[in-house]
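Chapter review: from sequence to fold.
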Amino acid sequence: CTYRQSCVFFLSVGMKGLKGETMKNIKEGDTVQLLCEAKLESGELCYTNDAQNPLVLVVGDGKFFPTVEDALQEMTEGETKVVTLEPEDAFGPHIDDLIIKVPKSVFKTEVTLEIGARIKIDVPTGKSFIGTIIAMDEQTLTLDMNHLLAGKRLIVKVTIVSIGKEENKSP
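The token string follows.
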């Protein structure tokens, strides 16, 4: 079919689906189910889900990347969009001050210590942090406490599976 025929078809269908129902556009407060795939610029896959396990979120609640939530606005069921997240819109910049040296003696002897390993550090306040061993010698470990994706640009592809009704919010 030609470009002109495609335009005529679109205009005749308008904002109705092929079955005649009105297509719903996402707006703030809607609960959406979506498929999501996140990759690094290199193409390395960081996250994916499938139709049996869609990601469910309320648009505008701020529990997902705000840039992606903004991109969801006005999308319809079945629509796919690709959004590029700069580091500051994803997991933040890589912060050099979060690279620390820790004595090996603070770790239990049964913990395997090797470069690239992720280890949990419990602090006296009761919080826990995860760090990646980036260097080591006989006495100390050098840990990168940044998120693994800090400083990285992410390419996020979302496909809308379904759009639920706007949730009633209590005043």
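Two observations follow directly from the output. The helical segments are 3-13, 66-72. Residues 3-13 form the longest helix (11 residues).
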